[in-house]
Amino acid sequence: MLAFFKPRSDKSQPSDASQSPAPAEGTKTQERPKGLGARLKEGLARTRAQLGQRLSGLFSSHGRIDDDLYEELETILLSSDVGVDATQYLLDDLRKRVKREGLSDAAQLQGALQQSLLELLAPLEEPLSVGPQCPFVIMLVGVNGSGKTTTIGKLAKYFQSQGKSVLLAAGDTFRAAAREQLMAWGERNNVAVITQEGGDSAAVIFDAIQAARARGVDVVLADTAGRLPTQLHLMEEIKKVKRVINKADPSAPHEVLLVLDANTGQNGLAQVRSFDDALQVTGLVLTKLDGTAKGGVIAAIAKLRRIPVRFVGVGETMDDLRPFTAREFVEALFE
After folding, report:
1. C-beta neighbour count of 267 within 10 angstroms
2. What does residue 122 show for φ and ψ, rounded to 5 degrees?
């Protein structure tokens, strides 16, 4: 049975109560949100130690640019999950820059590498913009544990901060904890949730779209059950969910967001490939960058598929889900 969960609207509730994230997946509170650059640099500390600091040490310890330097650079990039294709691209581009700009000192390579990396990642910088469709339907997909449900809760607050009304669809009907968690986010953000105990994910999302249309809601955030790319029958099911969404609204889903856990490193590439082949992914959310040294995987993704990175997660608080900015990301990787 489908259920419409409407959070209480208690005017006597303290005004900052809706600003607090739901107490799920280890979410913590933070007294003051930091500036984007500072928080991003803090969140990427582990990746910077693995990549940025090692690169700085490499460039400062070598005198001249030679084959040994390139070999050591290749090792550092590969061990930071930059990936074979992206690593080869960066090395080739560096060699061209060295020749074109007449570089000879190893110390000069750091700036050249930053510029090469920036140019590689810049095409991924394309902020998510809610179009004129009402409701604007965003379908979120990914494997179990990637942070989909928490991302939905944070996105709800993000869109609310832009003056948009939001409705959540608890389409992960296979995991009771996912429904409970989404309802907790709905309660904290004062957002309605369409839910069902077990049953068909597509039916829940279909009803959510209908409810949003009837109520004039701007954005529908649709959760889906986590699945591995190797689970072909489940991938077929999620394709069915997308088809049902399209029946509810021929122009929907207007965005298909793939949520990737940065800790998976190169395994994330297989997820990008499989979900994109099945669903034509329109954007990525890279979560948990603060807990991994594998942030270089974003470069590997850039060489695999030019799918926009809509948001990056660099912490556990509401403000730690940020729109991706290529320059700030690259600057945060280096000392």
Report:
1. 15
2. -55, -40
